[in-house]
Predict the 3D structure of the following.
Amino acid sequence: MKIYISADFEGVCGVVERAQCFPDNPDFERTRRLWVEQINAIVEGTMSAGASEFVVNEAHGAMNYMLPEILHPRASFVSGYVKEDNQMEGLDNSFAGAVIMGHAMAGTANGVLNHTYVMRDVVELRLNGEPIGELGLNAYWASYLGVPVILVIGDDKAAEESRALIPEIETAVVKHGLSQFSAHNLPLGAALELIRKCSKRAVERIKEIPPVKLLKSYELEIDFSLSEIAHLCSFIPGVERTGARTVQYAASDYREVQHVRIVCTNLALSVVRAHF
Ligand SMILES: [Zn+2]
């Protein structure tokens, strides 16, 4: 049984502020170690319920932060950027289930490190009129491939967001959000134990957890911080600028929507880098 793991930094117990997530901070090496240890707990937990193959996909920043020397010896890993399927690269229909370590969408009150791809510059992203974040968009992609997301690991707000989308999902709450940049974290040992326990239970319950229901057509809307980002995105064929800072794209194929989203959020990063 193959298990897929998409692992972002902001869902890690002990990580609460942005500086901890990027390489120019002295705490960054510690964040990497905490992240890998918590990924290993997913591998151990799912393995104890019968999983035998594990693929870990890096889902944070430049996506090249793995420490292979301490990653569980049974897990292979996908690193680097750009990847066609981004935070879900490497997933296909041979997997029995997917596990996401992640965070709540942009604008979630007291969601630790809440954002949607580009902190500050993606103000809100909507799918068919409803605000959605990385967890939801990744769950749709997993569904497109016929794979259920069986477990989300992160703070209490990420867990809530996941259950709103997939009521049957397992969630491992390793920290309680006090604000966007603070949390009450579990003791590390308890967090690792909880991740193992929830991972085991998620595999045991795998048949009870359905993929999210796919839609007939998708309308993606993104509100950016800067009008210039919307301007640049509107150059993509099919992307319409519906407001000074808003773009829209509609398609019946979810992969198309995902690719347009990836390009738009990368354009946002390039505008910010060019002007700030
Ligand atoms: Zn991240």
